Amino acid sequence: MIGVRFGPGSDGRSVRGFPRRLRGLYLLIAALTAVPGILRAQVFHGTPSDYRSLIVGLAPGDTLSLAAGTYRSGLPIIDLHGVPGRAIVVTGPARGAPAIFPGRPCCNTVQIKDSSYVEIRDLKLDGRDIPGIDGVNGRGVTHHITIEGLTIVGHGGDQQDVGISTKGPAWDWVIRGNTIIGAGTGMYLGNSPGDDPFVRGIIEYNLMVDTIGYNLQIKQQNPRPTGIGMPPDGGRTIIRYNVFTKAHGASSGAMARPNLLVGHFPLTGAGRNDVYEIYGNFFWQNPTEALFQGEGNIALYDNVFVNDFGDAVNIQPQHGVPRMVRVFDNTVVARDSGIQVIGGAAGYTREVIGNAVFAGSPIRAAYRRDNVAVPYAAAGDFLNRISGALGGRDWFPRPGMLTGVAVDLRPFQAFTDYNRDFDGTLRDGTHRGAYAGSGVNPGWIPRLEIRPPLGVIPVPVATSGGGVPGPVKPVPGSPGSGAHLVTRMRARY
Fold it and tell me: Is the pLDDT confidence value at 145 over 90?
């Protein structure tokens, strides 16, 4: 805390006797120091021997910087609250040797409970395959939590063991830039009965590899709890720029799970008009289930789906039914079913538009138009390279392929980055599938890595004719698309 001395004869409440030009400065300093926590932000340096004692004293704006080493007593974040613009941060080294938290049979490794405006960054969690523990677990009421840059391994002792989990009402979480390998389930947000909703989250730039069950599941939601400050109706949960793969080690039979599953939002009351925006992701292989399954309100666009073993996209009833569904501008390569939209609620729009689908059964949907839908075996006639090792494959269209009459993109303009392709290129509506171009791929070649951020330089405009370009995409640091969330990552990945 900064102390203020007002001078000889002062009782601490008067600035008389000081030069007029300094009175405003002293009044400002006095006001700031009168409010607890303002100007108090500090950086504490923790080690395995003292970090637990430092956690309990963290205040808004404080950072606990953990040295490299092994932290054997877990990380409890209990009743810690930052404030807007002044989060409490717990971080390990961004580079070099990590801060490692090994699993313990008693407890989840990082336990967050009844906390808000907290950021957890740059840790390694090794569960040592101890059954019954999660890497990160949120309980009670949690909001404005950021989980960033974690490496989570050794949480595959059981399919129910989770890398990142919430088991209480949770909103405004950001889960970014994490690597989860071989967990029972990568992320499991919500609970089975549907009473602990996960609301208005952003899940981006994560790598989820070879989980036994889901890479990511967000559970269906019952009517929202009241009186705890949850967001109003009409929010969006964004799932973008992630890599999902279940090429190895997946459960089969009754325990088989999709890479990504999203359940419905509340059917009535607050949240009934919330929507999932799922875009810019790479889905790679699932030998025992579909790559994606969903119900409720879903916008699914600009993704690349590849499953040489089975289905790609199944939008169908589970605990509820599909409601508003927009599936547009995806590239799908699947041995069996490509895109399936069945069993929806009356009075809602469900449409499949502008996709490039190469599958045994390309598209099954009541309303579909302006798609390219051809057999799985023909994918190589349209795409650059569909065989070989991952990293050598390239699903960008061959020169002059996958174009047509311009699709009007304006019906999709409510969705974030609706007019940007898989690589961030501005669309003109004439290309089918995830890419707005053909020939040489100018962007990221999908592989098993955290996807590089799209960057801050202007992206090229697709030029094959037709259509009216939409608004310029916000650059990192600006509101609107959430693109500001990748600013810190640019120096790290």
Answer: yes
Check residue 422 and report its DSSP letter.
Answer: T
Say if residue 388 is in the same domain as residue 469. Answer: yes
Q: Kindly state whether residues 96 and 12 are assigned to the same domain.
A: no
What is the average per-residue pLDDT within 72-80?
Answer: 98
Tell which wins on pLDDT, 240 or 28.
Answer: 240
Angle at 137 between CA 294 and CA 75, to 5 degrees: 155
As separate numbers, helices (DSSP H) first and strands (DSSP E) second, the chain gives 2, 38
What rounded mean pLDDT belongs to the chain? 88
For 352-381, what is each residue's pLDDT tens digit? Answer: 999 999 999 999 999 999 999 999 999 999
Residues 116 and 13 in one domain: no
Domain co-membership, 434 together with 300: yes
CATH code of the domain containing 322: 2.160.20
Compute CA distances 341 → 297, 338, 366, 417, whole Å: 12, 10, 8, 23
Phi, psi dihedral angles at 55 (to 5 degrees)? -60, -45
Listed as own residue / partner, the contacts of 249-256 with beta carbons closer than 8 Å and 24 or more positions apart are: 249/156, 249/182, 249/210, 249/211, 249/212, 250/210, 250/211, 250/212, 250/213, 250/286, 250/287, 250/288, 250/289, 251/159, 251/212, 251/213, 251/288, 252/287, 252/288, 253/288, 255/159, 255/213, 256/288, 256/289
Element (H, E) at 24: helix 20-34
Q: Which residues constitute the domain of residue 14?
A: 1-40
